[in-house]
Write a structure and sequence with these properties.
Helix 1 packs antiparallel against helix 4, helix 6 packs antiparallel against helix 7 and helix 10 packs antiparallel against helix 11. The chain is 61% helix and 7% strand. Strand 1 and strand 2 form a beta hairpin. By secondary structure, it is of the alpha+beta class. It starts with 24 loop residues before the first helix and ends with a helix. The protein has a four-stranded antiparallel beta sheet with strand order 3-2-1-4. It has a two-stranded antiparallel sheet with strand order 5-6.
Length: 375
């Protein structure tokens, strides 16, 4: 390949094999039914409270709080389920709240990606032992926590009255709805529901093996092992196993970073990343776009293509030093040496990000760029 892989057009069709799953319709239908019932119930109860009293305007923020609380409990259930199996918390997002575990410390921040306000939790193993079984507990923890909260809030409503009773009822219904919807096996927006993921691990087979391999590899990276030190046999086995475009791309990205860290070309891997870019969940494409921008400069000297990829890297869940690396290589290519040096210094001044192993590679690339004189 003699040209940098270009970003897909906004209107480009999905990559081959990235068919829109029919099961995407199922969560939409069920969501409409569940929240339609919630709306009907609210309409029946908001007119008057017991005793003929009208509810205050606090009912509206009360409903929003019920949703936030129920979602927070659901995602916390995932982390708790994983922690009981020795998995390490990595990420917890609910509404505008974002918590990350980096270097043994918890960092709080603002979730700027509205697409993930519905909640997301991640925990990873540090080894391959019983991964499928342990992941089943983590996945089940969310729906189980939602069902438990629904029962607790429901019983609490029996002992309350007035608006407090109404809030407890709202929480019970919302939490029960979240638990029910997430247990239904489905796929939406590139993400599999809890029920679908649990069944994959339960059934075993090649898909469960691939998922387990990827989790073990990512877990090793999160523990601070740089890409070239990751289990190469496990990466190659994961690449050989059949997978949907999203699953395939997650392995290809790991393999591409490992190739870069070993000083190999990796052009075919980056080309595959580019061709399947639109198949990846929108909230996680940004790191792919940044690596493709870096690749466009380093392997081809193509500034315009690099900038086109950079334009697709806004927001998302990305370690900031990777953005600094891309800013630095583009600035160097354009002859803006002061901007390049500033980006290098900025990147090297940061602590380890969400992916400590990947951060080692990025920081090495920043140092090498700083040591290389301007051409």
């Amino acid at each position: 390949m003699n040209r940098a892989p270009a970003p897909p057009e906004a209107s480009a069709p999905s990559p081959a094999g990235a068919k829109r799953p029919k099961t995407q319709l199922l969560p939409l239908i069920l969501s409409s039914v569940v929240f339609g019932l919630l709306g009907y119930w609210a309409g029946q109860h908001l007119a008057t409270l017991p005793g003929g009293r009208r509810p205050s305007l606090l009912v509206i923020p009360g409903f929003l709080f019920s949703w936030f609380f129920a979602t927070a409990v659901h995602e916390a259930g995932h982390l708790l389920g994983g922690m009981t199996q020795g998995l390490r918390p990595l990420l917890y997002m609910v509404g505008p709240l974002r918590l990350t575990w980096v270097g043994g410390r918890v960092r709080a921040g603002f979730n700027r990606n509205a697409g993930l306000w519905g909640g997301l939790a991640a925990a990873l193993p540090s080894d391959y032992e019983r991964i499928a079984e342990r992941m089943q507990w983590m996945i089940a923890g969310g729906p189980l926590a939602s069902v438990a909260l629904a029962f607790v809030a429901g019983f609490a409503a029996l002992a309350l009255d007035g608006e407090a009773q109404l809030f407890a009822q709202m929480t019970a219904l919302v939490s029960g709805g979240i638990g029910f919807l997430t247990m239904v096996p489905s796929t939406m927006g590139g993400f599999s529901s809890d029920g679908a993921q649990w069944l994959e691990y339960r059934r075993g087979g090649e898909e469960a093996e691939r998922r387990a391999l990827v989790l073990g590899i990512v877990g090793a990276s999160m523990a601070g092992r740089r890409p070239r030190e990751l289990d190469r046999t496990a990466i190659e086995r994961a690449l050989a196993l059949p997978a949907d475009p999203v699953g395939r791309l997650s392995v290809v990205t790991i393999a591409a970073c490992a190739a870069v860290d070993r000083g190999e070309d990796g052009r075919e891997l980056f080309a595959e990343m580019a061709s399947s870019f639109r198949a990846y969940p929108a909230a996680f494409r940004q790191s792919l776009a940044l690596w493709l921008a870096w690749h466009s400069i380093v392997s081809f000297g193509d500034v315009e293509t690099a900038k086109a990829w950079l334009a697709l890297a806004k927001g998302g869940i990305v370690d900031p030093e990777l953005r600094d690396l891309v800013d630095a290589v583009i600035a160097r290519a354009e002859g803006r040496e002061d901007a390049c040096r500033a980006a290098i210094a900025r990147g090297l001044s940061r602590g380890p990000g969400l992916d400590p192993g990947g951060s080692i590679l990025v920081r090495d690339l920043l140092r090498k760029l700083g040591e290389t004189p301007r051409a």
